[in-house]
Structures are given as structure tokens and as C-alpha cells.
Amino acid sequence: MQILLLEDDVILQEIIEEFLVEQGYEVESFFDGEKALDAIGVHNYDMLLLDVNVPNIDGFEILTYLREIGNTTPAIYITSLDSIDDLKKGFDLGADDYLRKPFELEELNARIEHIARLYRLQEEIEFDGMKFVPKTHQIFKAGNIIEMRQKEAQVLEYFIRNTGKIISCDEIIENVWDDDSTPTHATIRTYIKNLRKMFEKEYFDNIKGEGYSFNIV
User: Each residue of 66-125: pLDDT tens digit?
Assistant: First the structure.
């Protein structure tokens, strides 16, 4: 799991990063809010650990912007701000948790694990000798990584969880897309075409007039 850590206290940042790496996480640390926000725009982090009082762009402003543009990456505030108003503001902005300094590192880890379970951040699906991580949109196969877009991963996950079942385009739309966007059947066929190209084997059977079936031979 990839974590972005925004903390301008040099010593505390090093302590947190070292601890999280020991727990098996990949951590990228920043002292400056503006640089952290730039990194979030480029990389797909699984979780954000945000201090509030940092240079240039504070943690509250970062999360405000991210939620406004539809970025739903889980976020935990780790801050010395301890008033009820600050706590409420953090949650109102879309934070998933709020941890007041000083805190025990094991408590931070427990909160990270709780959110990871809640959002299925570390869930892996194994099929045909491959490991599929839906949240990161990646498939690991014989030392290689297959990267895909978010919707492609969601479509693939739905098929895998319904292996052997005939699934229509309408069923995919109903279960993968939200009410705000409804793709055409042609769009669904394009996603499946793209997924087919990622594998050496043919997993998708086209059932004429009915839909598709995902099968592992």
C-alpha cells in the first residue's frame, strides 16, 4: 500500500516514515503542502497522512481541493490542532480519521489498518496464477505488472467475482457505474476489448445476444 505523508517536523516525519516502512508500507514523504499536492496529482496513493500546519498549502486546503475535484483517496489528519472545531472541520472536509499529536505509532498503524479494511485497500484476488489488486488497478504475473485504468479494473473485478455467469452490458453498467454517468454498450465493449488485450489467454466469451462470460480454463 502506498502512503503519502505530509509532515514538516523533520524528526517526526523520519520516525513515522521509518515505522510505516517497517510495517510493509511504501511511503513518500513531504514537508511542503504544495509539493505534496503536486505529487498527489501525478501518483495514485492509497492513503494520505496530512499534517495541517505546513508550508505553502495547509492540510485543510489540500483535502478541500481534492474532494472538490472528486479525489476520494482516504485521508487521516495527524496534527497538533486539538480543538473540537478543528476536529469537526477535518471531518467536514472529508477526512476519514483525525489523530491528535502526540500519538503512539501503533495507534496510527491501527487506524491505517482499519481504513484499509474499510476500503479494501489491500484486498487481492488470485486467478489463474495471477494476483489482481483492484484498488491499485494492477495485476501481478510472473514478476511483471499489468497496469490498467480504474474503470477497467472495476469491470474486471465484477467479471472475476461472477466467473462463469453470463453478464449483459446493462448489468455491468448497473453494478460498476454510478447514477451520474451511464456509458453506452459500445463503451462497455471497448473496455472488454482493452481487457482482452492485456492477457495472453482468452478469458472473455462473447455470448451472442446475451453478453459476456468470464471463464478460467
Answer: 999 988 899 999 999 888 998 999 999 999 999 999 999 999 999 998 988 887 776 788
Q: What class does CATH assign to 2-119?
A: alpha beta
Q: Where are the domains of the chain?
A: 2-119, 125-214
- φ, ψ for residue 86 (rounded to 5)? -65, -40
Phi, psi of 71 (to 5 degrees): -80, 120
Q: Does an H or E element contain 85, and which? A: helix 84-92
Name the nearest CA neighbour of 169 among 159, 179, 157: 159
Using the 8-state DSSP alphabet, how is residue 136 labeled?
Answer: G
- Residue range 125-214, CATH number: 1.10.10.10
Question: Distance between CA 203 and CA 94 in Å, rounded?
Answer: 39
β-sheet bridge partners, residue 211: 207
Q: For residues 65 and 107, give the distance between their C-alpha atoms in angstroms, rounded to a whole number.
A: 28
